[in-house]
Specification:
The structure is a homodimer. Chain A is α/β, with parallel strands linked by helices. Chain A has one domain: SPOUT methyltransferase, trefoil knot domain (Alpha/beta knot). In chain A, helix 4 links the parallel strand 6 and strand 7.
Chain lengths: 196, 196
């Protein structure tokens, strides 16, 4: 996280709450594609980095770093750190932890997002995979337990909606610097600018 | 689709544009979990049904139908229909097709969502997986090509943001009727009402 700033500037709007995503419970075989999608979603929707906790999976690291190299922007990928250590060092630096869970406060029907914003602190979004440890719900770990609706769906979908709402949509207009590949949006077909 | 109505009532607001999701290019081994997440996202975020085109995958059908049985609401799951047939019969019934793709019109920087709404027609959201056929971009197939940002990420994330924006967040407060399991949102821990 050393190379990530404390504020995320998206076009002209400055969000002074940096967001990093911690993915817990990755199983290399079973979760390969899903974890890759979660990491790519974090990058594309304005997070500054991704932590794959407790495990090393070089294939995913290579995939994500290749996307960042080609598509631009600043995005860090870390892996292997035990989740508790990652959380405690984040908190030691003054960050807060938002655990996305179906059981949490509903982002639509509660004021939880406003309360998270009002703290104006860097945010670690904790997303699980298999059944998460009970501790995730404790005040020692999570500052907020947030539900993207209280129906079961997907950590990838939940992260996407959380980031889109947090950044108020501006993340989808974000400039990705030093990109080798840039898409020119089209009503039909594909148009890209590729730097060689 | 016969059992799906032409309007989706979410709490007090009526959205007269029904949304169904067509998932193309599913590979049973590799995509099992991802396709399951896409289907659960469709259900949890207000779509009325899911079509797994071109292929039959009983395991996913069983998983989704079990979730719908336990968590309530009306959600249909269909599979095996060739994608072209599904698209043409949808259009024959007066529906439009929205293809989610990184190359499309950016939902944040363009007025594409407004133009889709203004048609007030039932929407089939087409989400790919592997590289999609060129035809998806043609006017014979897609009425709109929409990008949830022009960076590569995930069909699951893209679908989630599209649905959350289309339904203006109300889908996350949707009542799921006849549920056996209902979550009572909590700041910490898990609270559910389970009917036996």
């Amino acid at each position: 996280m050393a190379d990530s700033s404390n504020s995320t500037k998206i076009n002209n709007k400055i969000y002074d709450q940096e967001i990093v995503v911690l993915r817990w419970g990755h199983r290399p075989q079973r979760d390969a594609r899903l974890t890759t999608h979660v990491a790519l979603t974090a990058r594309a929707l304005g997070a500054s980095g991704f932590l794959l906790s407790d495990i090393v999976d070089e294939k995913i690291k290579v995939t994500i770093e290749k996307v960042t190299r080609n598509w631009g922007g600043k995005f860090f990928f870390e892996m292997g750190t035990p989740w508790k250590k990652a959380v405690s060092s984040w908190k030691a630096k003054g960050g807060i932890v938002v655990h996305l869970t179906v059981y949490g406060e509903n982002i639509q029907t509660s004021d939880v997002l406003e309360r998270i914003r009002n703290l104006r602190k860097p945010i670690m979004v904790l997303v699980g995979s298999q059944k998460v440890p009970k501790e995730f719900y404790s005040k020692e770990i999570s500052d907020f337990n947030v539900a993207i609706g209280n129906q079961p769906h997907s950590e990838c979908a939940a992260l996407a909606v959380f980031l889109d709402r947090f950044f108020e949509g501006t993340e989808l207009a974000k400039d990705f610097t030093k990109a080798n590949i840039t898409v020119i949006p089209q009503k039909r077909g594909k148009k890209t600018i590729v730097k060689r």
